[in-house]
Recover the amino acids of this structure.
């Protein structure tokens, strides 16, 4: 005999499929849905529906957007000669929130990871190469995560873009700026040592 | 210029209204919804809709259920002379999962809390008193949280049921059974000292 009605058990199962949501949290969220007024719960259901209906990858940069091209690619005030390459849309959002970058983007949707069966052809790298080859691009900035997959994918892209003569750079990494040496993780610290540069 | 398309920003806002979901988690959940196939996302939307459509409080015990009376109140194998009183449906689920209780329940939906403006009339206490007065009930077991509000509400209910002559008990509390003294919280330990009982 189940302790939850069938529809509640289904909702818990759906919540549990989400990243970082365990059984306990899924139960708590379902209880919350039970408790709130119907119109509030249906607004959440509707928001999910709308996102799937309206949001598509931009045909130029592959950012998730309601317009195509997206509001960044379509913005005449942005510098089209700069392309910042990120792994995921959330990375683009994080960079946008700094308010310091005025170029365009390119979203890869992952990194090359042979162990997970992800090759270059599963990412948007060919489209990036086509953008760079088309002219009008002066620099491709690789803002992939500072880890092994990010390193490997950055190397792959740099090599792939070699013949376009476009400058390819990568954002700096090491110990976090503004943090302290003794509060850095061992891996960040040892990596920052390994990647040491001549002092200016 | 927003970094998220409008529908994505709405979805993030809806996720953020949920308990224990901060901005970062809400963004992560929205990105997840963007990434998964439409049919998976719509299944979540549908599950929310179904719960609000089908689940109602049981007219007898107020447990959230699709049937009325609920599957517990309607189960002829359960002992109708025992009523276990809990604050929330999730407490009922926790007790059901122990597999050791075979009586019925009564869900209060909160505790008396004058500071939050919650009085006895906002809970299902009158309905509980009516159930106890109707006869056939031998014991009301109070399984409210072992905190100040749970204590106060338990006292209130015990007093309210006095004239029904039904036995009113409360689950034991103190340091957690199976735990260790030196790993108990200070408050659990000091409360267990205050509530000490004659050794059998």
């Amino acid at each position: 005999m189940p302790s939850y009605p069938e529809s509640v058990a289904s909702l818990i199962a759906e919540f549990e499929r989400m990243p970082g949501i365990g059984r306990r949290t899924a139960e708590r969220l379902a209880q919350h849905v039970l408790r709130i007024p119907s119109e509030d719960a249906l607004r959440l259901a509707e928001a999910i529906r709308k996102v799937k209906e309206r949001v598509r990858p931009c045909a130029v940069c592959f950012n998730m957007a309601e317009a195509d091209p997206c509001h960044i690619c379509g913005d005449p005030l942005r510098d089209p000669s700069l392309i910042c390459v990120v792994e995921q849309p959330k990375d683009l959002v994080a960079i946008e929130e700094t308010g310091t970058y005025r170029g365009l983007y390119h979203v890869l949707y992952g990194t090359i990871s042979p162990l997970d069966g992800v090759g270059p052809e599963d990412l948007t790298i060919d489209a990036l190469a086509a953008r760079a080859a088309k002219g009008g691009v002066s620099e491709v900035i690789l803002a992939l995560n500072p880890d092994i997959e990010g390193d490997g994918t950055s190397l792959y892209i740099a090599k792939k873009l070699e013949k376009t003569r476009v400058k390819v750079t990568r954002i700096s990494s090491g110990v976090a700026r503004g943090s302290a040496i003794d509060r850095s993780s061992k891996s960040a610290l040892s990596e920052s040592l390994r990647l040491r540069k001549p002092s200016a």
Chain B has a mean pLDDT of 90.
